[in-house]
Design brief:
Elements: E1 3-13, E2 19-28, E3 32-36, H1 43-50, E4 58-63, E5 66-67, H2 72-76, E6 79-82, H3 94-102, H4 110-119, H5 135-146, E7 153-157, H6 165-181, E8 185-190, H7 193-199, E9 202-207, E10 210-216, H8 217-221, H9 228-245
Parallel strand pairs: 3-8, 3-9, 6-7, 7-8
Antiparallel strand pairs: 1-2, 1-4, 4-5, 9-10
Helix pairs in contact: 3-4, 5-6
Length: about 250
């Protein structure tokens, strides 16, 4: 199986001493890899380093075999990114926003703009101003922008954050559709473990800046746990016990 993402010993400590420590993991081609942890665990920090928006204190990130710090353009050539919230011009239509984004990719046809609008279910609203979009529609527009260049890897930070149940289901279905039809590999984060369980074939559990468990859902549950939530609560109790007795 081809390795798409390699993270080795990734560390970044902020002035308040919070951050991430010694994160190591791999993402294989075809994975929907769920990076799970509570708010403040360090998920966004890892993803910002992956996207070149922040610099690690130490450690390496390689995507498609290229080191993000040394060969940024090559590493990001096949990558789409949506970090935190989707940004768009509210006074422009959804389609116009995507046309502007498409300028970043020479040779991209206008047909591709219509294709991604169809993929994310916004074709009927393509001429409507983004300021009139719901939060879920804005997230779908962000997804559309992220897949414009036909990436092979999508990095999505909390893609269902702030959405109602219907919006969460819509975004989840789009991710599963893109994985199935566009053959896109996903690295996505969430603090909602039920969403991870429904979407992802592999999971990394982050707690207090450290990767405490990682593997396929089958490997993680190992017949001991019924759900990932049970596993997570067990692991947290163990980590807290270690801290108390340290």
């Amino acid at each position: 199986m081809e390795t798409i993402v390699e993270i080795e010993g990734l560390t970044k400590i902020f002035r308040n001493q919070r951050g991430i420590r010694e994160i190591s993991l791999n993402v294989q081609k075809g994975d929907i890899y769920g990076f799970f942890g509570p708010n403040g665990a360090g998920k966004t920090t890892v993803m910002k380093i992956m996207a070149g928006l922040s610099r690690a204190d130490k450690g390496k990130v390689r995507m498609f075999g290229h080191d993000i710090a040394m060969n940024y353009e090559q590493a990001m050539a096949k990558v789409g990114v949506l970090i935190e919230t989707a940004e768009a011009y509210n006074y422009m239509s959804g389609r116009r926003n995507l046309e502007l984004a498409a300028r970043m990719y020479p040779g991209l046809s206008s047909k591709r703009v219509d294709e991604v609008l169809e993929l994310v279910g916004l074709s009927n609203y393509r001429h409507e101003k983004v300021g009139h979009y719901s939060l879920g529609m804005k997230q779908r527009l962000g997804l559309a922008a992220a897949i414009l260049s036909k990436p092979e890897l999508l990095i999505l930070d909390e893609p269902t954050n702030g959405l109602d149940i219907e919006g969460m289901v819509q975004v989840r279905e789009i991710i599963l559709q893109l994985a199935r039809e566009e053959r896109i590999t996903f690295f996505l984060s969430s603090h909602l473990i039920q969403e991870m369980e429904l979407m992802c074939n592999r999971i990394g559990i982050l707690y207090d800046g450290k990767l405490i468990r990682e593997g396929s859902k089958t490997q993680l549950l190992e017949g001991r746990f019924t759900t990932l939530e049970e596993l997570f609560l067990h692991e947290v109790k163990e980590k807290r016990r270690e801290i108390i007795h340290a």
